[in-house]
């Protein structure tokens, strides 16, 4: 889990987020796609699409999600697999946004929409935990558990939830 440590420089006290080392991330599921220039942490650094220096800036608006064919085989669907790569490489905000773009294209009560909503909540829980917002992280995990628990479509839900809970208790970064 993230902590805060303090360092002194010649002019002021500076607070830094301490980020524990991750487990090695698995191989990319979508190998030809490059990771964003930086991992966005809300409240730290330029907002990816609202700030001109953001890694996804396109005039200050959220980028349009690509049209998605949810009928594709999940193991071969780059739009389904890409957010998993982002998550496993600690781009939790970016994974959340990519999953949300897919979620908006599904009927809300479908099983896949429920799983996507849970994955979005898990990503947000990791970010909140990392920022020290434990109560918000716990609330998000409570909401995510029934949506992610059974997994499906290349996601081992129970393993993801267990890894995220372990991270929130000071363990390594979670992986899908």
Describe this structure in words.
The radius of gyration is 17 Å and the shape is globular. The chain has a single domain, classed as TTHA0068-like (Hyaluronidase domain-like), CATH 1.10.3450.10. Helices cover 40% and strands 7% of the residues. The chain has 176 residues and is mainly α.
Keywords:
mainly alpha, single chain, 176 residues, 5 helices, two-stranded antiparallel ribbon, Hyaluronidase domain-like, disordered N terminus
Helices and strands in order:
Blueprint: E1 3-8, E2 13-18, H1 78-88, H2 92-103, H3 111-130, H4 134-148, H5 157-168
Antiparallel strand pairs: 1-2
Helix pairs in contact: 1-2, 2-3, 3-4, 3-5, 4-5
Put the structure in a nutshell:
The protein is mainly alpha-helical and 176 residues long. It has one domain (24-168): Orthogonal Bundle (Hyaluronidase domain-like), CATH 1.10.3450.
For the largest beta-sheet, the strand count, sense and barrel status come to: 2 strands, antiparallel
Strand-pairing-aware structural class: mainly alpha
Question: Going across the major beta sheet, what is the strand order?
Answer: 1-2
- Termini, distance in Å? 17 Å
CATH class: Mainly Alpha
What's the CATH architecture name? Answer: Orthogonal Bundle
- Within CATH, the superfamily carries the name TTHA0068-like
How many individual domains? 1
Order of helices and strands: EEHHHHH
Whole-angstrom Rg:
17 Å
Total strands: the figure is 2
Helical content stands at 25-40%
The outline comes out as globular
**Count of helix runs:** 5
Q: CATH topology, which one?
A: Hyaluronidase domain-like
Bin the strand percentage. Answer: 5-15%
Average pLDDT figure: 84
Please mark out the parts with pLDDT under 50 across 5 or more consecutive residues, or reply none: 1-21
